[in-house]
């Protein structure tokens, strides 16, 4: 049984709905340990896990506070986790508000730039034919449309498109040392996670 460690919730994203979402999607084939504070996690034991999910931004407090929990210590622990073959899965705000010149940005292969204030109807569609998009057909959600800065060497496997704001990157993957990094940008509400194709995407990501 694979072991999954998830850190969820931040200033804009209550941990309760994210905990509910992950418990709904991640089934009995996995041991799922979910935390809503980085201080609750034994980072020295990170290598005991197969998958690390970050569905939280890199800051400690509100948007005006520049203090980051995702500091050099945590960056190095994540780097070591990937060097040993672990999988890092960044969901929605897991791409946001961390130092852009730090190790984590290098690991992630991209970062959040902005999203329009309006939550449009977005069509999510596969941008690559691989295991991650296996069985995925186009689907519609109402969500924050994230616009990302993405490194050219990553493999984009998912796109998002709305009538109001055009096309954006919704998912990418990259190899990092012996591990793998996978990013999925939708996920601002529980309703997004209730979509069948969203659940299938997440399960594909966990299995890859």
TrEMBL record:
InterPro entries: Class_I_gatase-like (IPR029062), ThuA-like (IPR029010). It comes from Halanaerobium saccharolyticum. It comes from the Bacteria. This is Trehalose utilization protein. SUPFAM superfamilies: Class I glutamine amidotransferase-like. Residues 20-204 form the ThuA-like domain. It holds the Pfam family ThuA.
């Amino acid at each position: 049984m694979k072991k999954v460690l998830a850190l969820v919730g931040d200033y804009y994203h209550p941990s309760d709905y994210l905990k509910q979402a992950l418990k709904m999607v991640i089934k009995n084939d996995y041991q799922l340990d979910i935390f809503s504070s980085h201080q609750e996690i034994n980072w020295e034991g990170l290598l005991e896990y197969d998958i690390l999910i970050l569905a939280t931004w890199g800051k400690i407090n509100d948007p005006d506070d520049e203090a980051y929990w995702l500091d050099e210590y945590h960056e190095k622990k994540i780097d070591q986790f990937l060097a040993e073959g672990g999988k890092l899965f960044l969901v929605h705000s897991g791409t946001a508000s961390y130092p852009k010149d730090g190790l984590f940005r290098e690991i992630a292969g991209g970062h959040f730039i902005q999203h329009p204030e309006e939550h449009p109807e977005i069509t999510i569609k596969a941008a690559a034919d691989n295991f991650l998009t296996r069985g995925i057909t186009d689907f519609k959600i109402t969500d924050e449309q994230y616009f990302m800065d993405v490194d050219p060497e990553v493999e984009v496997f998912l796109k998002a498109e709305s009538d109001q704001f055009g096309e954006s990157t919704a998912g990418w993957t990259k190899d990092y040392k012996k591990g793998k990094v996978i990013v999925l940008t939708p996920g601002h509400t529980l309703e997004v996670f209730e979509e069948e194709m969203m659940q299938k995407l997440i399960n594909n990501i966990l299995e890859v």
